[in-house]
Design brief:
Layout: H1 2-17, H2 26-39, H3 42-55, H4 62-71, H5 76-89, H6 96-109, H7 113-126, H8 133-146, H9 150-163, H10 167-185, H11 189-201, H12 208-221, H13 225-238, H14 243-255, H15 269-274, E1 281-282, E2 294-304, H16 307-317, E3 324-329, E4 332-340, H17 343-357, E5 362-368, E6 373-377
Antiparallel strand pairs: 1-3, 2-4, 2-5, 3-4, 5-6
Helix pairs in contact: 2-3, 2-4, 3-4, 4-5, 5-6, 6-7, 6-8, 7-8, 8-9, 8-10, 9-10, 10-11, 11-12, 12-13, 12-14, 13-14
């Protein structure tokens, strides 16, 4: 009798372990894992996924389960690796384009711009007809901007506009073009025109808060504090939950000392037409503690092809030659080291830069009035 009991136990064990007799089908497992993922029960989700892989190693749902695991992975690098496996190893998986989009999304949030550039290009190449193709292009344009490849970024944006004329696409592309024009041409006519197009034509879009903030910064840089105040206050009132609203609050505190008042601020055609095609402006804020107009001298260094190169030199000399300002010019970026009341002091500093750092600069004369800064080489 004991012998029969043992045999029955073995048979029951085989019955339970055999996938053919499992109580959960492949589809049941997928549904269960999906529900666990929605509930955030990651431990149980992983346990069920591993169980599924053992019971159904040849299942058509393997890639779907892998996608759910990758979507719920909390370690960014591990998630990227899991998504890459889906893109590279599961060539017939219909959701590979989603996995590639997730890779780009994570890289964007991690600010890994060079890798994002490569993965965006890969997405565009592999999934030309995907609903995510447009998003790959947006990621690519943003990567190019961060890598200071402004001409390439502009070409991507123009390609997006040519292929998609929808409301949200146009507004998102115009805000990217405004950033690009700002970096290539400064606070120029095309930059102001981009912002005006967004504000007047895309008032309900997600780009509107950014455009209002940038317009406020534009007026602030021109010392037109009434218009800056008006743009900032409209932004805070109409888009209180946007990140730009918090930035605007800080700017409002900053310009409060000028006692600004509400006024119209949308640039009209004449204002845009009278704005310079190329406008050299500091990449960072000029020190406005000295409100006096007049002549000062500084040492110009450059131009540098990339802003990162200018920042490296600034970091090197900033301690001994403050203030050091970065300004965008037509063919790159310039550094302006020191502020001096007479040309002899500037000449001594120029010699120090050459002797101590091996950097050759030129003396420039800086003339400031209430609204503008003019720079002339001596």
């Amino acid at each position: 009798m004991k012998k029969y009991s043992i045999s029955i136990t073995i048979l029951l064990s085989l019955f339970i372990c055999n996938p053919a007799f499992s109580s959960l089908s492949e589809k049941d497992y997928l549904n269960r894992i999906n529900e666990l993922a929605k509930k955030g029960e990651n431990g149980e989700m992983i346990r069920n996924a591993n169980e599924f892989f053992k019971r159904y190693p040849q299942s058509n749902y393997i890639a779907d389960v892998r996608l759910l695991l990758a979507e719920n992975e909390t370690d960014a690098d591990k998630a990227i690796n899991q998504f890459r496996i889906l893109v590279d190893k599961y060539r017939y998986f219909e959701k590979r384009d989603i996995a590639q989009y997730r890779i780009c999304e994570i890289l964007y949030l991690m600010s890994k711009w060079k890798t994002l550039e490569n993965e965006s290009i890969k997405g565009i190449r592999l999934f030309r007809q995907s609903e995510y193709t447009l998003q790959y292009k947006f990621f690519l344009a943003k990567a190019y901007i961060q890598l200071e490849k402004y001409d390439a970024a502009k070409n991507v944006c123009l390609d997006i506009i040519e292929r998609d004329h929808s409301y949200n696409t146009l507004s998102s592309t115009l805000i990217l073009l405004s950033y690009i024009n700002r970096n290539i041409l400064g606070l120029s006519r095309s930059y102001l025109n981009n912002l005006n197009e967004i504000i007047t034509g895309f008032g309900d879009s997600s780009s509107m808060p950014a455009a209002l903030f940038l317009l406020g910064r534009y007026y602030e840089s021109k010392a037109d504090y009434n218009k800056a105040y008006s743009a900032y206050t409209d932004l805070v009132r109409n888009f209180p939950r946007s990140p730009e609203a918090r930035f605007s609050d800080k700017q409002l505190d900053r310009i409060a000392k000028y006692n600004p008042v509400k006024t119209g601020y949308l640039p009209d055609k004449e204002t845009i037409r009278n704005t310079d095609r190329i406008d050299i402006q500091p990449e960072i804020d000029i020190d406005n503690n000295d409100e006096k107009s007049g002549v000062q001298y500084s040492i110009s260094l450059g131009p540098f092809d990339k802003i990162s190169s200018a920042r490296e030199i600034k970091k090197l000399i900033n301690k001994d030659f403050r203030p050091v300002e970065i300004a965008g010019v037509k063919n790159g970026y310039m550094l302006y080291a020191g502020k001096f009341s007479d040309i002899d002091m500037a000449a001594n500093t120029r010699i120090r830069l050459a002797e101590e750092f091996g950097i050759n600069g030129n003396i420039v004369r800086i003339i400031k009035d209430a609204n503008n800064i003019y720079i002339y080489e001596e």
